[in-house]
Amino acid sequence: MSTTVFSRSLVELIRSPHWDLQECMEAFGYTLEDYLFFGGYPGAALLKHDEQRWSSYMREAIIEPTLTKDVLLMEEVRKPAVLTQLFFLGAAYSAQEISYRKLLGQLQDAGNTDTIANYLRLLGHAGVHKGLFKYDEKLIKTRSSSPRLLVFDPSLLAVASARSKHELLGDDAHRAHIVESAIGAYLLARSQNEGFEVFWWRENNNEVDFVVRKGAKRTVIEVKSGRKKSRSAIRAFLEKYPGSYALIVGSADASIEDFLLGKVPLFS
Question: Could you tell me the pTM of the whole model?
Fold first, then answer.
């Protein structure tokens, strides 16, 4: 979400991202568990005690107007039904890599991979979800990589999954995806205001959740959220890109809550 301010001599884009954990704690008494499921849409917060009403509100008052009005104001969308399918599929797969061809195979009447890439771009501009590029020093390889889908707010994954709070947060695999999505959404929000880029990285069997780059500074981030993960991937990244800063979110030095509260430095 963003606002454009006009004056006689100045056009300024002021970005207004989803509410963060700190804001939701102060305004609505959210816990970390609440935020992971209900996310940062303040209009929906009053319905958190009724998940069915909350889900209906999210679909009818937020998601549908975004897809059927906001996106269509940006440019012509020849297949709005495909755009809607792509949103729900992408949100459900948040924090996971999925190739354009696989997306194409799961969407009805989608056309070609160029259509999918363009619709992902529009969804990104609308602030709902986007495809992260795989990090590589060579720009051509970065742009041609399969995207890692990521929502701008964890609640969008919750709605798209059609699972209850207990089902999502009580299962290790589901919880891992929603925690990684919340961390990624936080990074996307900060990147818009602080001018850094967000990627992911994989090489052979080594994979890390996020890479952030700002000028000459580069940080590799691994999220520990219930699933056992080896640190070999971080070591492999540091060997290939020496001088990078490594951060493990969900460790004793950087808890998930502290990271989402902005208490953990992002760059060394």
Answer: 0.90
